[in-house]
Amino acid sequence: LISGSRSSKTFKPKKNIPEGSHQYELLKHAEATLGSGNLRQAVMLPEGEDLNEWIAVNTVDFFNQINMLYGTITEFCTESSCPVMSAGPRYEYHWADGTNIKKPIKCSAPKYIDYLMTWVQDQLDDETLFPSKIGVPFPKNFMSVAKTILKRLFRVYAHIYHQHFDSVMRLQEEAHLNTSFKHFIFFVQEFNLIDRRELAPLQELIEKLGSKDR
Question: pLDDT digits over 1-32, tens only?
């Protein structure tokens, strides 16, 4: 029996975009276009919008989605079930954030994902990196910051698909996972945000998702 108690809990606090803000309007626009079912169109930069702002809003949204998806399977992702952070036998990730942990360390998947999500959250909360106020400029290095965040968030999808897809199916979450991942992939492809090499662990799935939409 799978208890649903864990799945209602989120893994990390949700990052909220303040209502009434321009970013909130953008998020609503994104949600509306997603509803149309055309994901390729939904990820495109809305006319007249700032690219950094569009990437910021979507990065926050993907963080929240992945947070929620991973939250549903945390009880199956343990020190003993996942002693290393992997995406199948050929890909293993070691954690380093460049500040607290400079030399990459080998750690279990739950530990790695906890480091990763905490690290992402700290950046999303940093007003100098992700300004929430209108008219506050994005930093010059914003694009490289966003790319690193998205590259790392991809690893959580890759781990879930490779190591926990059976649990996702038992929980009947696969449609939710596939839609979220497809949206993520179309988004990073549209703006060329993740190196192809980084996407290798899920290459077949990415091709399959893409071929349905051509």
Answer: 333 333 334 567 777 877 777 887 888 877 77
Is 29 annotated to bind a ligand? Reply is no
Work out how many domains the chain is built from and give that number: 1
- For residue 59, count CB atoms less than 10 angstroms from its CB and return exposed for 0-12, middle for 13-18, buried for 19 or more: buried
3-state secondary structure of 194: coil
Of 165, 177, 172, the C-alpha closest to 68 is: 177
Domain limits for position 90 = 22-211
Tell me if 107 is assigned to a ligand binding site. no
Confirm whether 5 is domain-assigned: no
Q: How far is CA 6 from CA 12, 51, 186, in A?
A: 13, 36, 30
DSSP 5-35: HHHHS-SS---PPPTTSHHHHHHHHHHHHHH
Confirm whether pTM is higher than 0.85.
Answer: yes
Report pLDDT digits (tens) over 51-84: 999 999 999 999 999 999 999 999 999 999 999 9
Residue 77 assigned to a binding site: yes
User: Cα separation of 98 and 93, whole Å?
Assistant: 15
CATH number at residue 85: 1.20.140.30
